[in-house]
TrEMBL record:
GO terms for molecular function: nucleotidyltransferase activity; transferase activity. It comes from the Bacteria. This is Cytidyltransferase-related domain protein. Residues 25-120 form the Cytidyltransferase-like domain. PANTHER family: BIFUNCTIONAL PROTEIN HLDE (PTHR43793:SF2), FAD SYNTHASE (PTHR43793). Keywords: Nucleotidyltransferase, Transferase. SUPFAM superfamilies: Nucleotidylyl transferase (SSF52374).
Length: 176
């Protein structure tokens, strides 16, 4: 499996650099993986030769999203993302931001979704990782946001459809 602790990923990144490969980096929670995530990661990978995805740990996800998140534990989220053909390496980080991971890996390109800006224009206050990448000589690219595809909306749809506890309104449960 292509899930690495950061020290191993740093060594792998060094081999990619020595081979002249363009490394793209992104990070996020990736809770309840959906088509928007897959399209985003596929588009990110198309911008380089290798794609590294750093996933927020359960603790950092709770710090960012609240006590009810994540839905899917970090090890499972990492396994799911790592299984995607477009992803070359995955690591998990515990901090609120991926600044330290970015500083350690020095990617050639840092990519985030359109909710952080547009094109090469981004909200620097919300993307401290972008400042680190630029300081290391890398580039930043904001990919278009996939409208209608967000984990929060997916959770809201599930709750609306199946109600609170115990399943759907007809009492049959969630259907396995």
């Amino acid at each position: 499996m292509n899930i690495y602790p950061l020290p191993e990923l740093i060594a792998l990144r060094a081999t990619w650099r020595a081979s002249g490969l363009k490394v793209v980096f992104t990070n996020g929670v990736f809770d309840l993986l959906h088509v928007g995530h897959v399209r985003y990661l596929t588009a990110a990978r198309a911008l380089g030769d290798r794609l590294i995805v750093a996933i927020n740990s359960d603790e950092s996800t709770r710090q960012l999203k609240g006590s009810l998140r994540p839905i899917v534990p970090e090890a499972e989220r990492a396994t799911i993302v790592a299984a995607l053909r477009c992803v070359d390496a995955v690591t998990i980080f515990n901090e609120r931001t991926a600044e330290a991971v970015v500083a350690a890996l020095a990617p050639d390109l840092y990519v985030k979704g359109g909710d952080y800006g547009q094109g090469t224009t981004f909200d620097a206050a919300r993307l401290p990782e972008a400042r680190v990448v630029q300081a290391l000589g890398g580039e930043v690219q904001i990919l278009p946001f996939s409208e209608g595809h967000a984990t929060t909306r997916l959770i809201e749809r599930i709750v609306a459809r199946y109600g609170g506890e115990g399943g759907n309104a007809d009492g049959r449960g969630f259907g396995g």
